[in-house]
Amino acid sequence: MSQKQLSIYLAAPRGFCAGVDRAIKIVEMALEKWGAPVFVRHEIVHNKFVVDSLREKGAVFVEELEECPDDRPVIFSAHGVPKSVPAEANRRNMQFVDATCPLVSKVHIEAERHHANGLQMVMIGHAGHPETVGTMGQLPTGEVLLVETPDDVATLQPRDENALAFITQTTLSVDDTIEIITALKARFPTIVGPHKEDICYATTNRQEAVKAVAPRVDAMLVIGAPNSSNSRRLVEVARNAGCTYSQLVQRATDIDWRALEGINALGITAGASAPDVLINEVVDAFKDRFDATLEIVETAQENVEFKVPRILREAV
Ligand code: SF4
Prior knowledge:
Blueprint: E1 5-12, H1 18-34, E2 38-41, H2 48-57, E3 59-62, E4 74-76, H3 84-91, E5 96-98, H4 102-116, E6 120-124, H5 130-136, E7 144-147, H6 150-154, E8 164-168, H7 174-187, H8 201-213, E9 219-223, H9 229-240, E10 246-249, E11 265-270, H10 276-289, E12 291-298, H11 310-313
Parallel strand pairs: 1-11, 1-12, 2-3, 2-4, 4-5, 6-7, 6-8, 9-10, 9-11
């Protein structure tokens, strides 16, 4: 029996961003330089496959610094850490490498600059996400107020309504964030902020590509982890752009084949922490079951690269 035809549209850009690439390299280079074990505070990037492969090479993942011994190197994840974490590592004389994405560090610097100018910060982000925790932890408690939705803006109680600035998590939905910024500016007309928001190039580009693919397909699969903020946003963006069946899958074994039986066109993308090997695995799974054609829908080209910290470029 001949196989059913399927048009696959692969969003581009998709998958690894420069910050994730750098963070993974940092762990690999640290293992080469200092040997195993190297401790990593929090999942270096939100992807089980990546974490498991680094674990096999000798990385030990922990949630808190207190779980690390003093005499082994520790790496801080790409999401960033509160100031108290490197301070504690210094106090304990630990060797540490900060893998915080430079685009997250940029937001930390913005927050500090506004704070130095006497402004209280409003952060648009998701409560409990490590990036939000890390960014809020750059300033003393109470100096950063968190909002997650436009409704939260109405209940904010700042110290001085005329001395406010806003920053954002880097992996939010561009469209949802615009709504929150509009609500902030309506209630606090003098609030200071970045030109647009702090959402990074990788998040923006992946969302734009999904918007171009979504109207052409019957279903969209986003390869990414359930705790990956930018991957979850891609699922929402696809739904909002008209693709009602939009699902997050970690790898091919997660695909609900029954739900996809009647489709003629499928969109595939991947969050910034999902490696190519998992994207290829999903594409191959469809090629096995369908008479599939593949088209790449490219809305931007990326050539961003971040250097690893100097300490890893130096000889042992
Ligand atoms: S998603 Fe953006 S902020 Fe996060 S690691 Fe990648 S480039 Fe950096």
